[in-house]
Amino acid sequence: MPESRRMATRGARILVTGGTSGYGRALAMEFAGRGAEVMVVGRDAERLASAQGAGLAAVRADLTVPADRRTVLEAVRDRFGGLDAVVHSAAVQTPIDLVTDTPQNARHLIEREIDADLIAPLAFTVEALPLLGQGQGGRVVFVTSTLAFAPKRSAPAYCAAKAGLTAFALSLRSQLRNDAPRLRSAVVTLPLVDTPMTEGRAQRTMPAPEAARRTVRALERGAEDIDIGVARVFRLLHRIVPRTAMRITRDS
Question: What is the pLDDT of residue 5?
Answer without folding.
Answer: 73
